[in-house]
Design goal:
16% helix, single chain, 3 helices, alpha+beta
Length: 413
């Protein structure tokens, strides 16, 4: 009886315990594997969402501004490819031609394109929400407009001053200092940067014409409009916030916007549009040309040439019909659409992504595939944006509200 009692009180055998441990280990390993897989799936889907979000932000911003290129201004100033002479400006005295100095560009066309890194694009259009009547005769050094000035004017802001009477001319000038916003209808004086010629943004000499003066006509006979300059480019920062060359290991790339404006200290202002935009490639479409695309051939740089951007071609004028030879060249005025490609990468570094395949930036535009920093997943996105304002066939005389409160230019372009 004592032996039966001891036998009845016996526990699991060693074999049974080992079997149980093995089963438990298998179950735990399976659960951990499932948890790890779910975590990786979450991280991957989160990265995918980030790629898509950044792509949407970047392409929406670029598309919106590219559609506006040339709105309300002479088409020859819509895109800036560096110094350019003999640009048609509809209202210059005696039919003179204007020129472009080139913003942040010393080497025409090549400054906007690269086959071994990001491109950049510079465009202009008139801000439809800003117009003011001149309240005093303009001078080469300043203009005085009616208040209130709802939004401040930054140093470096481009302005278009239009004369609706007399000689019916206009001039493009640049604000030389910041002007604070006001809340009263008192006149506001805007100092201008020095200028004396036909160069876009420095046509001060024309403001001495008597037509740039107040008038008893409804709305006045001379108006000032704001012209926005937008330069999109890629810039990389290291962990300390210092600007470093594109492709530097450990740096983070951003799509940046520079509007040519200066802060109170005189330093350039630039803003971040979207982080983790690693590359920007831009190509241009010329629908009436025998070679309709420029800047999209892999390994072939965009050049100042008839097959690239033809800076030597005759600038079309408003009266040229669509069938005119001047409309079939690669002059910047003939750009019918812009093809934009961007490469977005995941924001976080992943040490597992260290193969050569993981390092490849996909070929886009005229940039062939090339190696980039390891540790990131990448995705390319592309869109094509039409530029209808460059196809203008007549000079613009915008209608505008005479209300002192809505400050809205409701026509033109």
């Amino acid at each position: 009886m004592r032996r039966r009692a001891r036998a009845g009180a016996a526990g699991f055998s060693l074999v049974e315990l080992m079997i149980a441990l093995v089963i438990s280990a298998v179950v735990i390993a399976g659960a951990l594997s499932l948890l790890t897989a779910q975590q990786q799936l979450y991280q991957r889907s989160s990265g995918e969402r980030n790629l898509q979000d950044m792509a949407r932000i970047a392409l929406d911003q670029l598309s919106t501004d590219l559609r506006l290129a040339g709105y309300g201004i002479d088409p020859g100033f819509a895109f800036d490819f560096g110094p350019l002479a003999n640009v048609s400006q509809d209202r210059l005295p005696s039919g003179q031609l204007a020129s472009v100095a080139g913003y942040a560009c010393a080497n025409p066309v090549a400054c906007r394109d690269s086959t071994a890194g990001p491109d950049e694009v510079v465009l202009h259009y008139r801000d439809p929400s800003f117009f003011h009547t001149l309240t005093a005769q303009a001078t080469a050094g300043s203009i005085t407009v009616n208040g209130p000035l709802v939004n401040p004017i930054q140093q470096g802001q481009l302005l278009e001053v239009v004369c609706y009477g007399g000689d019916m001319v206009w001039a493009y000038v640049t604000a030389n200092a910041a002007v604070a916003a006001t809340t009263t209808p008192a006149p506001v004086t805007i100092p201008l940067a020095a200028g004396n010629g036909n160069v876009f943004g420095a046509q001060n000499q024309y403001l001495t014409d008597t037509c740039f003066s107040p008038s008893t006509l409804p709305g006045g006979s001379a108006m000032a409009f704001k012209v926005d300059r937008l330069r999109y480019f890629i810039q990389s920062y290291d962990p300390t916030g210092a600007i470093v060359p594109w492709g530097t290991a450990g740096a983070r790339p951003y799509l940046m916007l520079d509007q040519g404006l200066l802060d109170p200290s005189g330093a350039p202002l630039a803003q971040v549009i979207a982080p983790d935009v690693e590359d920007l490639q831009v190509a241009y479409l010329f629908p009436r040309s025998a070679t309709p695309t420029a800047g999209a051939t892999s390994g072939t740089a965009l050049a100042a040439a008839p097959s690239g951007i033809d800076t030597g071609a005759t600038c079309p004028v408003y009266s040229d019909p669509s069938t005119a030879l001047s409309r079939s060249t690669h002059h910047p005025v003939n750009i019918g659409a812009v093809q934009v490609s961007i490469v977005i990468r995941t924001p976080g570094y992943d040490s597992r992504l260290n193969s050569q395949m993981d390092m490849m930036l996909p070929a886009e535009g005229n940039r062939p595939a090339l190696l980039g920093p390891a540790g990131y997943r990448r995705q390319a996105y592309e869109t094509t944006v039409a530029t209808p304002n460059l196809d203008a066939r007549a000079s613009y005389f915008p209608a505008y509200s005479t209300s002192p409160t809505d400050q809205l230019d409701v026509g033109g372009g």
